[in-house]
Amino acid sequence: MDNTISASNARRNFFEIVKCATQKNQIYRIMHQEGSVVLLSEQEYDNLIETLKLLSTPDFQERLKRSVDQMNRGETFSMDEVLGDS
Fold first, then answer.
1. Does residue 47 sit within a domain?
2. In a domain, 21, yes or no
């Protein structure tokens, strides 16, 4: 994580940091003598939670790898084949 800042700096630049986190999906590590925290956008947080849920689903990684292998072999269908002619 390349955006490591002190808690004092984070306090001085709080609104700019929040803006960068929400608009540019930047993640900040904010260091304090008591420890550090991470500031990230709600969207980034939701994405992390969703990824954790998917990765904890039994056989998900195996099924994903199988799907990617099928795609690489050209074993795919067009949208028209899947959904039918509109």
1. no
2. yes
Q: Is-contact 5 30, C-beta < 8 A?
A: yes
pLDDT digit string (tens) for 10-29?
A: 999 999 999 999 999 999 99
Beta carbons of 67 and 42 less than 8 angstroms apart = no
Residue 79 has pLDDT above 70, yes or no: yes
- Domain span at 13: 4-40
Q: Token digits for 51? A: 């990824």
Q: What is the DSSP string of 41-73?
A: -HHHHHHHHHHHHHHHSTTHHHHHHHHHHHHHT
For the chain, the distance separating the N- and C-terminal CA atoms, rounded to the nearest angstrom, is: 47
